[in-house]
C-alpha cells in the first residue's frame, strides 16, 4: 500500500471504531474511494486542541515519517480537512489487543497467540530504541492486528527522543503529556495500587494453576476479567474465552497452565530494578518464543478463532480499481506536515 490522496472527498466515512486523545480524537473506518480498500482515519478537531497539543501532534507526525518497520503502523496520508487533522492508516480488521481482550478473550488469550503478539511488539520496540526513541505508551490498545494476523504497534504520540545535545541519554524522567491529566481523577485506592504497590516491589504474575492455590481454582470464580491473564483487569460482557477456548460454565477460567518459559519471561520483564530488565532485542531471543513455528499470518487467525476480523463491508458504489490506480498515480500525497499554519 502506498500513499493515499490528501483529500477528504476521496474517503467514504463508515462506522466509528475507536476514540482517543481524551476524546478529542475519533477513529473512523472508511472506504478509500479510488481503490475501494478499507482504511482507518484518525480525526482530530484542531479547534478543540490547545497550541501545545498541536505542537505535540506535529511531533508525532514528524516521527511517523522517520519510522519504516513492518511492526509499526504506517501513516498513509496526513492532511487537514475542515479544521480536522486526518491521519490515514491501514485498517486493522481484528482491532486492538484491548478490543480482543475486552470483547472476546475476557479471561486471557492462548499462550501462543500472546507469544506472536509480544514478538511483534518487541520487534517494534527494538526498532524504536535503535532509532533513539522510547515509546512510553505500550498498552493493549496500541497493539493492532490486521486481517492476515500482522501485529503492529501504534500510539506514537507519547514517543520521546533519547538524543539530547547530540548525546544519547540513558534515562528519561519526562512524563508523557496528556496522560498526567488523568492522575488527579483517580481514586486513592487506584493510585495506591498503581504507584505504591509498584514502588514497594509488588509485581503481578500470570494467573494459572501454578500461581493460584488449588482450593481457589475449585471455587466459583469471583471475577472473570483479566488483562491477558496478567493480574486483574476490567471485565466486560460478551463471550468468555480463555486460552482460546470457551470456558465451560463450571470450570475456573484460570484452570490453565502456562509454560515455564512464559512465567520466566514475565518475571524478567517485571523486575523492580530497571538495570535487571532485559532490552527488547535481548527479549526477542527468549526461549518463550521458541513455540513460534509459523508466520503470524498463518497462525494468528487460527488462534483467534472464533473471533473473525471485520471484513465484508458492502460498499454502496461499484469499485473501479483501474481508474483508482490511475488517479493514485497522479496524486500521491506526501506527508508534508512541517509547514502547518494555524
Ligand atoms: P489513547 O488516548 O488511549 O492513548 P489514542 O489516542 O492513542 O488512545 P488509538 O489507540 O490510536 O488512540 O486508537 C483508539 C482505538 O481505535 C484503538 O484502540 C483501536 O480500537 C482503534 N483503532 C485505531 N487505529 C486503528 C486501525 N488502524 N485499525 C483498526 N482499529 C484502529
Automatic annotation (TrEMBL):
<dbReference type="GO" id="GO:0006611">
    <property type="term" value="P:protein export from nucleus"/>
</dbReference>
<keyword id="KW-0963">Cytoplasm</keyword>
<keyword id="KW-0131">Cell cycle</keyword>
<comment type="function">
    <text>Pseudokinase which, in complex with CAB39/MO25 (CAB39/MO25alpha or CAB39L/MO25beta), binds to and activates STK11/LKB1. Adopts a closed conformation typical of active protein kinases and binds STK11/LKB1 as a pseudosubstrate, promoting conformational change of STK11/LKB1 in an active conformation.</text>
</comment>
<keyword id="KW-0539">Nucleus</keyword>
<dbReference type="InterPro" id="IPR047173">
    <property type="entry name" value="STRAD_A/B-like"/>
</dbReference>
<keyword id="KW-0597">Phosphoprotein</keyword>
<dbReference type="GO" id="GO:0005524">
    <property type="term" value="F:ATP binding"/>
</dbReference>
<dbReference type="GO" id="GO:0004672">
    <property type="term" value="F:protein kinase activity"/>
</dbReference>
<feature type="domain" description="Protein kinase">
    <location>
        <begin position="11"/>
        <end position="289"/>
    </location>
</feature>
<dbReference type="InterPro" id="IPR000719">
    <property type="entry name" value="Prot_kinase_dom"/>
</dbReference>
<feature type="region of interest" description="Disordered">
    <location>
        <begin position="216"/>
        <end position="253"/>
    </location>
</feature>
<comment type="subunit">
    <text>Component of a trimeric complex composed of STK11/LKB1, STRAD (STRADA or STRADB) and CAB39/MO25 (CAB39/MO25alpha or CAB39L/MO25beta): the complex tethers STK11/LKB1 in the cytoplasm and stimulates its catalytic activity.</text>
</comment>
<dbReference type="GO" id="GO:0005737">
    <property type="term" value="C:cytoplasm"/>
</dbReference>
<dbReference type="GO" id="GO:0005634">
    <property type="term" value="C:nucleus"/>
</dbReference>
<feature type="compositionally biased region" description="Polar residues">
    <location>
        <begin position="244"/>
        <end position="253"/>
    </location>
</feature>
<protein>
    <recommendedName>
        <fullName>STE20-related kinase adapter protein alpha</fullName>
    </recommendedName>
</protein>
<comment type="similarity">
    <text>Belongs to the protein kinase superfamily. STE Ser/Thr protein kinase family. STE20 subfamily.</text>
</comment>
<dbReference type="GO" id="GO:1902554">
    <property type="term" value="C:serine/threonine protein kinase complex"/>
</dbReference>
<dbReference type="InterPro" id="IPR011009">
    <property type="entry name" value="Kinase-like_dom_sf"/>
</dbReference>
<dbReference type="Pfam" id="PF00069">
    <property type="entry name" value="Pkinase"/>
</dbReference>
<dbReference type="GO" id="GO:0043539">
    <property type="term" value="F:protein serine/threonine kinase activator activity"/>
</dbReference>
